[in-house]
Amino acid sequence: MVLNSPRGTADLYGKELTYRNFILEKSKKLFNRFCYDPIVTPAFEHTEVFSRSIGQATDIVQKEMYTFYDKKQRSLTLRPEGTAGVVRAVVENKLYAQNLPIKLFYAGNMFRYERPQKGRMREFFQLGAEAIGSANPLMDAEMIWLISDLFSSLGFKDLVLLINSMGCTLCRKSYTQKFQEFLHHHQEKLCPECRHRLDTNPLRVFDCKRQSCRHAIEDSPKISQHLCSSCRDHFEKVRRYIKILGINCQIDHSLVRGFDYYSRTVFEVVSTALDSAQNALGGGGRYDDLVKQFGGPDLPAIGFAIGLDRTSLLMQQLGIKPSASRELKSLYLISMDQQYSEYLLELLQFFRKECICDTNFNIKNISKELKWAQKHHYDFVAIIGEEEFKNCRVSIKDMQKFKQHAFDWKNEKDTILALLRGN
Ligand SMILES: [Zn+2]
Ligand SMILES: [Zn+2]
Predict the structure, then answer these.
(1) CA 39/CA 340 separation, integer angstroms
(2) Residue 282 burial (C-beta neighbours within 10 Å; 0-12, 13-18, 19+)
């Protein structure tokens, strides 16, 4: 019997993996330019790391976490997101003892027990950035700049950046009360789940995808109109800075991100090309109180994360190709008979010092091999047939120019190199 991978997981290879690696490679270069350092944290943490930060009343903590007890009865959870682990690491390792802000980026697999669908898996891949230790609205602008540059460097053109402010603990509290009152008056229009949220975590009603609930809150009080003066000032500055950067953004009053730890600026990059239930490609926001909650000093912070699976899916739907940044030439070495293996090995070693090179481990006929090499965009094909083997020669075919040369292997290595280097 063939064993399958668990529901909501996938094997990645071929094209899918090319896209993922392309996104990772591009973003690493970008993070480097913005002076963000890499960090790797564990794939599982003590359950409390997430329940304390994301919030007890959120769907993630209540329904979607992979929580288990280890052999010593410790409650552990596979990370459902990246920020909590990074903040835990920053506090535990006292990374804040250096020059602030600390700017970090990460990439890794995350886990949520959700109903799997296209672009939403139970094991998914995210990359993200965190900047800890600055309350400056310039920091918010840099984060938004970073996420929007990330998508444009991947080749996206028409994405929308949504922005909102969730206020601080002070102004959000009074707003939440007003919003709750409003919901009580419109209770009958809400779905059963939202009626439950109304008492436990009213702001989560914004997450409901049901048309009826969305309609019911259309005329509700807006959080950005109930900010205290310092939150209002912060939000205005952020919007001014991103305007200077030439980034198009829209204020979205219903953008109230699903985790408890957010404060002030929140943002999301959405695509209108994917269906509405999963149109967010990435997003983030400020979490000014989280470091303190983890037992660290009172350090304001901001971050974002993007989903690699959805981004890759959308790139494919929009026909965006990972541009090959292959600077090395590639060569496919074809041997016509297994008897030539030792000679083949010698050539393979030579070519691999100079270019991307593979060989046919299984001998097939030459025209099949050539077709394969062409399909995989090799720049050159080198052939060892009977003639070449006997006379210690090698034939090299330029796949773009359709020219073929035969070289004396012992005496013409320099000429071969010149050909491979395009001189
Ligand atoms: Zn405030
Ligand atoms: Zn609802």
Answers:
(1) 47
(2) buried
Cα 202 to ligand 2 centroid, rounded to whole Å: 11
Kindly give the distance from the C-alpha atom of residue 237 to the centroid of ligand 1, in angstroms, as a whole number: 14
- For ligand 2, the distance from its centroid to the CA atom of residue 213, given in whole angstroms, is 5
Mean pLDDT of the chain: 91
Write down the CATH number for the domain with range 14-168+228-317.
3.30.930.10
Q: Judge if 14-168+228-317 and 330-420 fold alike in CATH terms.
A: no
Q: How confident is the model at residue 327 (pLDDT cuts 50, 70, 90)?
A: low
Amino acid type, 8: G
Instruction: Lowest mean pLDDT of 26-40, 125-139, 267-281, 289-303, name the range.
Output: 267-281
Bridge partner residues of 103 (DSSP):
131
Q: Is the peptide bond before 192 cis (omega within 30 degrees of 0)?
A: no
Ligand with an atom nearest the CA of residue 183: 2
Give the residue among 124, 37, 50, 125 at the shortest CA–CA distance from 88. Answer: 50
Q: For position 233, what pLDDT does the model report?
A: 96
Supply the pTM of this predicted model: 0.82
- Could you state, in order of their start, the residue ranges of all structural domains in the chain? 14-168+228-317, 330-420
pLDDT score of 58 more than 90: no
How far, in Å, is the centroid of ligand 2 from the Cα of 280? Answer: 19
CATH class of the domain defined by 330-420: alpha beta
Dig out the tokens for 350 from the structure: 């030579």
Could you list which residues have their CB under 5 Å from ion ligand 1? 167-168, 171, 228, 231
Question: What pLDDT sits at residue 275?
Answer: 60
